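# step 3/5: fold
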Amino acid sequence: MEWTSYADAWLGRAIYEHGLGLLLLVAFVSSIAQFRALLSSTGLLPIPAYLKATKFWARPSIFGARYSDAIFLTVAWIGAGLAALTATGLTARLPWWAHTAVWAAMWLLYLSIVNVGQRWYGFMWEMIICEATFVGIFVGPASTTPSTLVVWMLIWLLIRIELGAGLIKLRGDSCWRDLTCLDFHHETQPMPGPLSWHFHHLPKPLHRMETAANHVVQLVVPFLLTAPQPVRTWAALAIALTQAWLVLSGNFAWVNFLTIVLALSLVDASVFGVSAPSMTAPDPAAQGVVIAVAAVVLVLSWWPLRNLLSKRQRMNARYNPLLICSSYGAFGSIGRVRREVVIEGTADRSLSASSQWLEYEFYGKPGDVRRRPPQVAPYHLRLGWMLWFAALSPAYRIGWFERLLARLLHGDPALLRMVRVNPFPDGPPAYVRVRLYDYRFTTRAERRQSGAWWHRDLVGTVNDPRRLREPPVRT
């Protein structure tokens, strides 16, 4: 391995291009599918209002020059098309300047969406995919030898993801230090998956082993990524295996899949006895650009490095509007109780004790206790994710939750497409209300007896019954 080129990184680069291209396709498609209800001019958090209230350089976006709902969808569809070409490997066959242009376009297009996405795009996987796509600009096409400097950019990104997550746990909730967090996490995580019930009911000693193994992988293994081969490859495979375990245990959008792609991008083909194909040296201009970018990344790395070393570590922090060299982390604290907001409606025009209230059910959320949690990831259900936060604190409901209730009373078609069960298919309800429930997984005995995956208890009322253009009605 030379300081400018690294021929045996060709396999990792191929995995990177195909894998990240596929995840970008998922990201763009999810933006298209959920745009009308969440961000359009009539959405829960309209982009036009946000653009008026935000300075361009604080959240740079191509929409700052001109915005319309049609322009947003055009941007997202172009991004999806370029991501599909990249996932199939067509982008990797282009000359270096065209390859660079495609990756730069995908980065700019998705960064523009994230920077106007507000709460819906405020999570770590959006930041990571932007940074990973930025690095993709410089990976080079399949015909040229991969750059050692780009490999080190990927190593640094993966270290920040893993080490940041490990340190925030040790500095956060005490259950990570006494190895008891997984007694609760599989049940209280934002969006459980089909196997989460089974993970929750694993023996407690196995939960302790899971937690301890997680600490080793996140706090020790990242340093091995800086070691020579084959140690780096085995460290990367250990990280990928741990992330695959997380994929099975819950739905976390594409963050686990993306971390797997980043880890496998560091695999050295020669470790498995696979020879590098014939490649040419990168264009001198391309090499110069990579060196310049690596120098910029080195300077920008001061802020995330300082954060990693700080006792007041921030879990997910951006230090520049381009989302380069951010800090990452996850689940610094773990909930012990799962709370859910449940929205109900009634067709009765006059409320009484006998009024029939029917529940809306949202994709990815516990509702019907007999419904098994679905597999969603790597797709990201943004509304369902935010509804989990809405149950934690009123602060998470500011700006969008009241609009959500109003849209249900209007029978907004765009929003109703994001509802799994609409109990009012023939017209909107007269009133809606919001109630708070404690959910927990059923025990094995309860599951055998009732067939239910969940048990729930009513905690109280979040919003009293209300109808359009009138203040809340108290009953």
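# step 4/5: annotate
The chain is about 50% helix and 10% strand.
# step 5/5: archive (pending)
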